[in-house]
Amino acid sequence: MNFLRRRLSDSSFVANLPNGYMMDLQRPDNSTSSPASPAMERKHPQPPQPSQSSSTGTSIFSSISSAMKQTTQAAAGLIDHSTSPTPPVAPKPKILLVIDDAHTEWAKYFQGKKVNGEFDIRVEQAEFSELNLAAYVTGGCMVDMQVMRNGTKVVRSFKPDFVLIRQHAYSMALGEDFRSLIIGLQYGGIHTVNSLYSIYNFCSKPWVFSQLIKIFNSLGPEKFPLVEQTFFPSHKQMVTTPNFPVVVKLGHAHAGMGKVKVENQHDFRDMASIVAMARTYATAEPFIDSKYDIRIQKIGNNYKAYMRTSISGNWKANTGSAMLEQIAMTERYRLWADACAEMFGGLDICAVKAVHSKDGKDYIIEVMDSSMPLIGEHVEEDRQLIADLVVSKMTQLVTTAGSTPSPLRPWPPQVQPQSVKTQPGPQLAQLSQPRPPPQGGPRQPQASQPPRTNAPPQQRLSPQGQQPQSPMSTSPQQQRSPGSPQQVRSATGSSPVQASKAGVFPPQQPRPPAQGRAPSQPSPTETSKQQANPHPHLNKSQSLTNTFSISESSQRGNPNEDEAKAETIRNLRKSFASLFSD
């Protein structure tokens, strides 16, 4: 306090203090003896004006700091929330459509299996007769299914990701033709086992047998013994056969249907009449007195061979009672299965049927695709093999779809400039009507003009490299002056006075050389004006055109633009004077 009183004696210090400070400092000592008293706090002097701005800035800074702290705390709370364990979102399951009868429940064979280790498999099963579909170019394939489950009609619509086909798509005996559904699946880009291409080709047994003929011609009769067969497109060709008895097969049928054993020529003619009524094709092959039938099946990389012997005495081993047993898989049988599995782009599931005759020879008679029936004691194992094969194909499809580019990907940028090139200005001018080159385009130097003007008019070329034109084929646009809206027309039918009415304009573009001018003798005035470069074959319009070209070249070549403009005006005046002199 004593220090403050001594400072109050200083007039300069007092003058700088506000009035509030003077009033508080001049109070008695007892009122200010306790600086920590509440009265002292209430009578605390107001800070000076500069301190108010600083305190305001401090308060703003403190507010910002507190807001930042709150934001930091909130962010820390969010981070803690994100790091907390959350239940994983299950990916959308893949839909597998199995086309088979209701006797086999395929859903249990795919239970617990995942595609690529992450996608579950939802199995939808129905027969061909219970399906309908609509296929789109970009929308895939929408399948409608109407099935009976425990006496209840179930209707569903879905987009299958994969299809397992275990039924025949076409059978003439049963009157079932579902080839349109195969086409719809192919249209929608659906992948199947077997492939849709092979399934569609298997809708005609003679067509499949033609593929066996190719294998027979490739491997030979020793490695691939194929039965002799004759194809008749209609009944008209069924006159006779070399040997009897024969087995006649009508059209496309399965499970021994449509097959008849013919003993003699009379029965064969009767059979031809049946073919005529059926309005279909037929095949005939020699009857083989078999000891047993052989069946070699291939599911993926798994091979099995079976032997079936008829007990009922029927010549059809698949009809009546038969005894079935599994036999050893030999290299010869494996060759048959592998050779047949390569037809139509590859068969994932197939079976080869052969007949072992009593004389010890084998004859291959047929090949089946994924619709083959499963036989023997290992039916459950075979179904599990088919399920594993389908899962592997679906996994391969998912992996390939994620790595290969889309067919709708746009054209790469680096390829576009190579195939679509920008045409330069002079080439575009050739495609359109002839006209002077644009400003900044190629122009002829002044030294090259005299030889060009001395040539005959019909042999001159424009700067764009156009073909020579006849004197009467010159277009008006080729004779247009650069800066004038009027046309400087040729001497054949137009007055040169029209060019003088256009006025004097500085040239804007280099003009092409005049074409199609009728040669005329120059006047004495023109001869005196052009002593350095005489033009004996140019008329007044051509002289004016050359003056424009020379002035333009001199203007572009001279760095001093004022002198170039003055020279241009002088040349134009001289040219107009020569025109009016006549």
Automatic annotation (TrEMBL):
Q: What is a GO molecular function of this protein?
A: ATP binding
Note whether Cell cycle occurs among the keywords. no
- Limits of the Synapsin ATP-binding domain: 194-396
Give Gene Ontology CC terms.
Answer: synaptic vesicle membrane
Its recorded name reads: Synapsin III
Tell me which family the UniProt entry assigns to this protein.
Belongs to the synapsin family.
Q: Where is the Synapsin pre-ATP-grasp domain?
A: 92-190
PROSITE patterns with a match to the protein in the record: SYNAPSIN_1 (PS00415), SYNAPSIN_2 (PS00416)
Sequence ranges of Polar residues compositional bias = 416-431, 525-558
Indicate where this protein is primarily found. cytoplasm
